Amino acid sequence: MARVVGVATRTMAYSAERLRHLFNALNDGIIVMDKDRIIVFINPSATRMTGWELGDWIPYCRYCEAREVGPGKERCFLAGQTEVSYFESELPTKDGAYVPVGMSRTFLEPSGGEASRDMVIVIRDVTRERQAKELEMRARLNRMTLEVQEQERKRISQELHDGVSQSLYAVDLGMEHLKRQAPPRLHRALDDLRAQVKRCSQEVRALSHTLYPSLLYDLGLSAAIRMLSDEMSTSGCRIEVSLNKEWPGGDLGGIAIHVYRIVQEAVHNAISHGRARHIQIHMTCAEMCEVEIRDDGCGFDADQIKLLPGYGLKNMRERASALHGVLEIESQPGQGTRVRVIFPNPLG
C-alpha cells in the first residue's frame, strides 16, 4: 500500500512539474489572480509582456478603467461576464505603459472552504496582428482605389470615343460639305481647318486608347505591351520588347492592367524626362514573374528617388504592391534608368 501511495505521489509531482514547465514555455502569457486581483501565478511570457510579477496587484485594463459601472457591480468586464470569455483591450504594464492584448478568461474552482474562485487570464500581444490587419486594410483600400481609377479611365475613354470623336467627325463632314458650296478662294483655308480637325481627332483617339487599352482586354498583356511599344516608338527613340516563352497568357484578371500601367509609366518617363533613344522591355516568368524596363536616357540620382514628388512613381509603387510584388528603380546621372517589378506568378 505504501508503495502504491509513493508511486502516486511521485506521479503527481512529476505531472505538476511537467505542467509548470508547459506554462513557462508558452508564448502566450498566463496570469492567475485572486478575488482582490493579486497575482498568485504568472508565467515568464506574461511577465515579459507586462512586467508584472507574483504578488503584484493587477490594474484594470484601459477599457475597464474608463467604463461606467453601477454601485456594487464588477468593474472587470471579463470577471463580470458569464457568456463573453474573450475580448481585446490594452493592459497596463508595470512601468505605466500599455500593451494591446487579446484576453481569454476562465475560472479555477475554489478549493476547501474558499468562497470565490481565482480567475485565469491568457493574454496575447496583438500588436503584430493589428499591424498586419492595418497593412491588409491599406492594401485592400489601395486595390479598390486602383479599380475605381481604371473604371473612371474606361468611362472617360468611352466618352472621348463616343462623344468627342464623333463630334469631330461630324465637324469634318460639315466642313467638307461647306467646301463644295464655298468659293474657291476659301478652299485652302477650309482644307487647313479640316487637317487640324483630323489631327485633333487622332489625338483624341490616342488619348482614349491610353486611358483604356482595349487591346489588353481583347488579346492580352503581351499584345498590348507590343502595341504600346509601337505607338510610343518615335524617330528618336526605338523600343524593343522580349518575352520568354513561359510568360503567362490568357486571362490574368487585374494583374495585367497593373503590369501594363507600370510599363506605360516607365516608358513615358524614359522618353519625356530621360530623353532616351533606346528602351528595352524584358518580361520573364517562372516561379516569379519579372518585368524590366531599361533605357539609355540621362538618368537621375537614385538616392533622391524617395524625395521625388511625382504621382507616376507613387502609382507604380502602389500597383507593384497590388501585385504582391516589389518595385526596384536603379539610375545614375548620365547612365540611364532600370525599372524592375517582381511578383508571384499568378498561374503558378
TrEMBL record:
Occurrences of domain PAS (ranges): 15-58
Enzyme Commission number(s) of this protein: 2.7.13.3
GO MF term (any one): phosphorelay sensor kinase activity
Domain annotation Histidine kinase: ranges: 259-347
Keywords of this entry: ATP-binding, Kinase, Nucleotide-binding, Phosphoprotein, Transferase, Two-component regulatory system
Catalytic reactions on record: ATP + protein L-histidine = ADP + protein N-phospho-L-histidine
Superkingdom classification of source: Bacteria
InterPro entries: HATPase_C_sf, HATPase_dom, His_kinase_dom, PAS, PAS-like_dom_sf, Sensor_HK_TwoCompSys, Sig_transdc_His_kin_sub3_dim/P
Coiled coil (residue ranges): none
One Pfam short name: HisKA_3
CDD domains in the record: HATPase_UhpB-NarQ-NarX-like, PAS
GO cellular component, one term: membrane
NCBIfam families reported in the protein's UniProt record: sensory_box
Name of the protein in its database record: histidine kinase
